[in-house]
Write a structure and sequence with these properties.
CATH class of the largest domain: Alpha Beta
Mean pLDDT: 94
CATH topology of the largest domain: Rossmann fold
Number of domains: 2
Distance between the termini: 24 Å
Structural class: alpha/beta
Number of helices: 15
Radius of gyration: 21 Å
Low-confidence stretches: none
Strand content: 15-25%
Strand order of the largest sheet: 3-2-1-4-5-6-7
Helix content: 40-55%
Largest sheet: 7 strands, parallel
CATH superfamily of the largest domain: Glycogen Phosphorylase B
Order of helices and strands: EHEHEEHEHEHEHEHHEHEHEHEHEHHH
Number of strands: 13
Shape: elongated
Amino acid sequence: MNNIRVCHVNLAKGFRGGERQTELLIRHLQPHLAGQILVCRRDSPLKVHLADVANLEIVETGGRLGGHGVSRGADIINAHEAKAAHWALAENLLRKTPFVITRRVPQKIKKGLISGLCYKRASALVGISSPIAGYLREISRRPVVTINSTLAHMNGDAEKTAAIRREYRDKIVIGHIGAYVDRHKGQRVIIDAARFLAGVRDDLVFLLLGAGSDEQELKALSADVPSVRWLGFQNDVGSYIRAFDLFVFPSRNEGLGSTLLDVMDHQVPIIATDVDGIPDIVKDGKTGLLIENGDSRGLAEAILKLIENRNLAASLAANAKSSLAEFQPEAMAAKYLKLYQDILSGQGENR
């Protein structure tokens, strides 16, 4: 065990991919650190998810201006999203505590004095995919490392999976998991593909899990496509992943797409878009199929290809499963731990 105490900051309101990755990192760092602190919002689900972790102090705050002072006992701060970076900057200015910023989204950083200072004073920057890391190198002179997000080992419940399969026993089940926000996750592409396929096959059903601001609009758009089912937010997505025959992920932008890793873990064949960090995970023709951004006809054709060529589908799924060694939570934690050690030993400044 190292004598390092890390202060993690995540001020997001909900619990999405970034929060799941924050949870996984804290859990897998726990055996290797003297202690950890989590600064989060009072209503953050993170504090519930992490309530059982030993040597973790949870500090609740109303926003980026609260909770300061708790990092006095920390050697280093890890900011896990944009508001957290501002919080870490304030602590750095007040107490000189070194900090790391983890960047999870592919969008460009908004220009501004505070954001500029964040990326100027950080000891190191982490990109969760190679495109994000490449962008960070373009806009900052600080050391940049790529540390991929990881799978979460969502095992699910065998009985619930069996019940889902019974419900759709006469169907080929095509799954999707993602926030109901089309400009991000591209559910309109799925609707258009399903509409086209309805005239070709009558044995397909599309199960879309999630929640988001576009929910009512998306449901209205798919009203004439009965094969599309909106199942809402589900806590046990692993049970559904195990019931899928195929998984579609037509995101319009995606930092990495860590959900894909859990789908691979259950050996479900994947069709995804060739954007941002997704190709870090899905290798076209080897571990899945990639389509162009917004190409609903391409999605439909890829679905038919995998349905009609089960050997190809099985081969892609098997290759995907075997590629997961570098995407394990333990590997992510080891890379972060080395980064913290390098910074605190003075090596991080000179890499």
